[in-house]
Design goal:
The structure holds 2 protein chains of 2 kinds. Chain A is 26% helix and 21% strand. By secondary structure, chain A is of the alpha+beta class. Chain A has a 6-stranded antiparallel beta sheet. Chain A has a 3-stranded antiparallel beta sheet with strand order 6-5-8, with no helix packed on it. In chain A, strand 2 (114-119) and strand 3 (126-133) form a beta hairpin. In chain A, helix 1 packs across helix 3 and helix 2 (21-33) packs across helix 3 (35-54). Chain A is globular and about 65 Å long. The two termini of chain A are 26 Å apart. Chain B has 2 domains: 1-110, RNA polymerase sigma factor, region 2, helix turn helix motif (Rna Polymerase Sigma Factor, Chain: A, Orthogonal Bundle); 114-186, Winged helix-like DNA-binding domain superfamily/Winged helix DNA-binding domain (Arc Repressor Mutant, subunit A). In chain B, 69% of the residues lie in helices and 0% in strands. The longest helix of chain B is centred in the N-terminal third of the chain and has 21 residues, at 22-42. Chain B has helices at 9-19, 22-42, 47-64, 75-94, 114-134, 137-148, 153-160, 164-181. The chains are: A alpha+beta, B mainly alpha.
Amino acid sequence: MDMDDVRQELLMAFAAGRLAEPVTLAIATHVALNPKAHAVVRAYEELGGRFLEELEPEPLPPGSLDAVMALLDTPPVTPRPRTGIQQDPSIPPVLARYLPAPIDQLPWKRLGPVAEYPLLKEVAGYKTQLLRIQAGRKVPQHTHDGNELTVVLRGAYGDGIGHYARGDLSVADGSINHQPKADEGEECLCLAVTDARLRLTGTLGRLLNPFIRF
Amino acid sequence: MNHPLEPDFAELIERVAGSHDKAAFAALFHHFAPKIRSYLRRLGVGDTMADDLTQEVMLSVWRRAGQYDRRLAAPATWVYTIARNKRIDALRRDRGAETSLDDTIEQEPDDAPLSDEIAIARQMREKVLVAVDALPPDQARLLKVFYFEEKSHSVIAEEMELPLGTVKSRLRLALAKMRTLMNMND
């Protein structure tokens, strides 16, 4: 399947709120760093707005407006967890929320030239990780059982198919045997989401599974 | 496009932002709250939860009105994104998650001056609406049902009395056409 089609479909599904949480996180990070992807999502959200306008209204129980009006002058009470990582300009807030500590203080697991930090471990069916690839080093060659979405946060890498810099999203399916290599001179920091079970075969498979299944 | 007799919703949101205008908020509530409820119900949210979430969405409309920029999105689109994010957060809360997407998901991309962003947003918005209007009605409907009503291919096939393969191929066709019409092949 054409990877541009997949990217397109992911952006539309993101606009529609239909992606599983790890995939939502990857696309939200991509969108936060990439003005063009953001514009595409905004455009698809217009479809959502139009859809909302076309819906038959369903009345709310009596008193609903009064109940909300009574809250208008109350300041919001939800405490915002802050980790201090918000100060790191390479991490957009949507991703920073998931991190308990600044990048350098996370408990990284080092495997040769690559260090990993897992996220969203509680979400079954996906492997979500931050990856640091040492400057100029290669990730061991691999194929995926499923699909892999990678968003570059800092630095850049190439895999023989494309070259990806900050804000770029790469989509690889099980048919791609690739060996990402970080550019010389700077470590590459990425967010990678792998759907471990299914291959992309003409539909988005698990990537598109509604959120509600989790 | 607003109906001629409908209020200017962008202006109402701006009045909420500018002067905490409660009458303007009430007018927004009357228009949008029943649609938000309808949206949530279509996505399978239960009655009570739909009422609660609708109120939360409207409260966000009040609190975040200052972030609305009519140059970037139609009023219904802005309200839609709040409702979408609230629903996602509600599902995550069920799972015990604490972080909220609602106020982080709409981040300005870095390095994009607002004027550029406004120009791109306007252009893309026009393109997507032209593109969806150019689709044959059955394909446009499929896109909407699949993405915004969260129905599976097989449920759509059943409801539209079409073979499953036809639903899948029309959906792919619609997506490919959207992409071409939006000139996103670069």
